[in-house]
Amino acid sequence: MMSSQELSFTANVDRQFLRAANLLDLPPGLAQQIRTCNATYTVRFPVRLRERIHVFTGYRSVHSDHVSPVKGGIRYSLAVNQDEVEALAALMTYKCAVVDVPYGGSKGGLCIRPKDYDEHELELITRRFAYELIKRDLIHPSQNVPAPDMGTSGREMAWIADEYQKLNPTEIDALACVTGKPVHMGGIEGRIEATGRGIQFALQEFFREPLDVKRANLAGGLDGQRVVVQGLGNVGFHAAKFLSEEDGAKIVGIIERDGALFSDKGLNVSDVKAWVNETGGVRDFPGATFVDAATGGLALEAECDILIPAALEGVIDAENASRIKAKLIVEAANGPITSAADEILRERGVVIIPDLYANAGGVTVSYFEWVKNLSHIRFGRMERRAQEAANAMMLAELERLSNLLGESWSPTDKFKRSYLRGADELQLVRSGLDDTMRESLQSMRAKWHEDERVGDLRLAAYLIAVEKIALGYQSKSL
Ligand code: NAD
């Protein structure tokens, strides 16, 4: 998607890294070690399909081993290439550091258009790709733990986990070899929605600080903010759904492969998603204006308060950056803004919530899933009923005391129901994710507000990440 005079994806990530590293007093050579991708494995493997042999190309990059295991999604797309996988692996290293998730960065990809294959064929291809990575420990509970990304989902993760179990029948922690699995295969409640939910929590936290809202030339809370979302896949759909249904934001535009939908009244995100699932695109969705994809990225330039690119990298570049009208951009996708565009937007005063923080909800909940798999017990199983019993005792005691004082107080049924209920796995996952997104933005905000050299949240996030990774390296023998 990037125009030819722009840098490669890896060079873009490097440039952002160097903005931060140059402000830090790192030991000689350390910046070079941190930003270098340690290893990329390229595999070409055959699968017999439709009575002939098809050869597929896949990658798994390990960007940084400073913490083990390394972690990062597996992407299925024809656009997958070594540069993209390495850039995404680097982003994973920095992302995990920003949100305090104890992993190094990795990423994988397979050059394939999933739509060209039926489910059985995709299973054969996925299992063979997994086998190639497993036998080199590039999928392993304590060394390298993949997750879903563009073009993959819980279904592929379940096949990978099963393949790993078959090859390692005595490995008790086998299910921790991959995250984003369906719940029946050792997955965790709330993982599917996690990245979109993380976008919601990030925006909620952003709008808690009036100074930041003002810096973005916005006012008020999330309620009524006009939002345009690009990509109604896993991340874009959940982010748009939660923001509109729970926070009162108005989704005035949805951009998909075939074109864009606009409505000043606001679009019903679930209805649009159902339409896309049924018809393959957004064209002809009733009650909204359709703009054909042929008019290109123009839809990204539509009038709105918040723009959420949640599809591809490099969609906002030096060519269109000056025409973007949004005041706040949330990078739900990885690398949607090139470094040249980032500079233009910063100069124009557009506030950007950067990818390495904004879309970290997925890896955060993946971390919870991995911990669940290693501990072999669902979150909340031991303490939920004990918590309910303690809450019930507290209410009974309050009622007894109020009677004693002649007040005869008793709580409403609604209060009782929500107060007495102990937290189940989904509530605990959401609480852990909310805490992560709040705390991380608060530390980025502290740098943004207090260090005059830090004029934007991306630089703040990179500074936090590089400082933490550098500290990790200082305790290692190199
Ligand atoms: P997905 O495959 O579920 O969805 C991608 C969506 O983008 C699809 O609806 C697709 O039709 C749409 N799209 C593709 N090309 C487009 C175009 N040219 N214009 C408009 N829309 C287009 O993928 P996803 O998992 O939602 O990932 C989206 C982005 O978020 C990627 O950059 C990914 O790396 C990033 N991300 C995903 C996760 C996760 O948990 N899935 C976590 C962190 C980051």
Write up this protein:
The protein starts with 8 loop residues before the first helix and ends with a helix. The longest helix is centred in the last third of the chain and has 26 residues, at 425-450. Strand 11, helix 10 and strand 12 form a beta-alpha-beta unit. Among the domains are: 37-187, Leucine Dehydrogenase, chain A, domain 1 (Rossmann fold, 3-Layer(aba) Sandwich); 194-361, Rossmann fold, CATH 3.40.50.720. The strands form 2 sheets. A 7-stranded mixed β-sheet has the order 9-8-7-6-10-11-12, with helices on both faces. Strands 1-2-4-3-5 form a 5-stranded mixed β-sheet. The protein is globular and about 80 Å long. It is built from 16 helices and 12 strands. It is α/β, with parallel strands linked by helices. Helix 6 (194-206) packs across helix 8 and helix 6 packs across helix 15. Bound molecules: nicotinamide-adenine-dinucleotide.
Kindly summarize this structure in a few lines:
With 478 residues, the protein is α/β, with parallel strands linked by helices.
Q: What keyword list fits this structure?
A:
alpha/beta; 16 helices; 5-stranded mixed β-sheet; Rossmann fold; binds nicotinamide-adenine-dinucleotide; 7-stranded mixed β-sheet; 478 residues; 44% helix
